[in-house]
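User: Hey, quick favor. My workstation is busy. Could you predict this chain's structure for me?
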Amino acid sequence: MNTQDVREIKQIIADLRSGSNREANEIIKQRTDSVIEPIKANPIFDLLIKLNETDNTKRAVQYLQDYDMDAQEKGIEALYDFVELRVIAEYALEIHDHRKDYRGAA
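Assistant: No problem, here it is.
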């Protein structure tokens, strides 16, 4: 990937994040939901356990998962936000590759 490609992809991502295209918004939402829907347990909590684990880390994370509604909501929001970022980047790469193929064919 050259610097021109990176610039173009960044611009596509910025356009997609602006939310001005209803069709793109719906595609992003559907794709994000399709990634998140089959997840049974939020992997962010597993990651929390692995980050500089101490003697009480697993118990603390278990407490957050079971009893702290704020932590659960933040975990879901964070997961959704990160998956959405991934989906937007994937979609931007698809758009970029399609444009590149189209320019190459022209």
